[in-house]
Here is the input.
Amino acid sequence: MAFIAPSMLSADFLNLSRDIEMVNNSEADWFHLDIMDGRFVPNISYGLPVVAAMNREAKKTLDVHLMIEEPGKYAEDFQKAGAEYLSVHIEACPHLHRNIQQIKGLGMKAGVAVNPHTNVHQLFDVVKDIDLVCLMSVNPGFGGQKFIQNTIEKVKQLKVERERQGANFLIEIDGGVTLDNAAEIIAAGADVLVAGSTVFKSDNPAQTIAALKAK
Here is the structure.
């Protein structure tokens, strides 16, 4: 059974407290928070004050995904804002091992996010150091995109390498997760499903979360 992490990027920001409470009371496991800087991705989302505000009401793990340049400059600030998992993009980190050690040194779980075009073999030297791999199954920056099917193969490759090295990281899928493809993604080896539009644009978000959890 996979963890379900509703993406708050798809929440109603005029009713954010209501949507946080819905997730708190649902079968969801984590809150997934997408931070975008308009540089690494062509969009700007929200920043530290919003994360800190969410943390005051959230009763579940904050899974913070930094889609930003120079994430090392902000890791400590996100730890103070309440991040429990902090993922940085391999494409934004020329000194990835240093970023991972920084995150873990701050007491957070370290994640590495991977864009659709990036080969997962680039992670194999650090898989024993990380707690989470966030596989982007759409091009990062915007919600509501269609799932890139090749992501299934990347999940399988990571699962094999995890077993080969005796590593313990979770495999997270971010983008295009629906009730129709969730079971296939989990069967391939995913541990965490991020779902934004599928949850928040449904008629009954809590019921949709329960349906994903049952896959």
User: Anything to note?
Assistant: Helices lie at 16-25, 48-57, 75-81, 96-105, 151-165, 182-188, 197-200, 205-213. Residues 27 and 210 are 6 Å apart (CA to CA).
